[in-house]
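Input chain follows. Return structure tokens only.
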Amino acid sequence: MKFIVGIGNPGKKYESTRHNAGFQVIDVLKKKALLNSKEAVLVRPKTFVNRTGDVILELSGKHKVSPQNIFVVCDDVNLRFGKLRLRASGSAGGHHGLESVIEALGSVDFPRLRIGVKTDSMPEDLVSFVLGSFDAEEKKELPQILEKAAWVCEAWTKEGFNAAMRRLSRLQSVK
């Protein structure tokens, strides 16, 4: 069994914030019906970003799923807005949600897709920035970015990590 876990914060207050990019990809996957429940379970935790590991721990214990079958989608303030980065493993890179997942799994070896939210006018206070909404120009571009991320998730689920990398490469070359 495979799981796609979007990282974000629950509640209407955080719905359209940068930190909820992972949740927004899960929403696109559900809306577009790119996957069925036999292919992957879509997870939108009811915990806050910093506690995402609690849900991962529950999933991995209940379903005996290996870290390689848990695909995590999150925002990244170190990547330019709209850039997608797919990795099979790696550090948290300062993302507290990924730190929580790494701690829960006791491993950095799980696939993750990062969605860039960095802008030229980022304030020093990153917490306010990631908990803030996208600006008007970003909101226009966001649906296409989220759809690309959903297609990468679909490729990973149906064909594996290398297929997801190939799809991402093709999608990044198309503007």
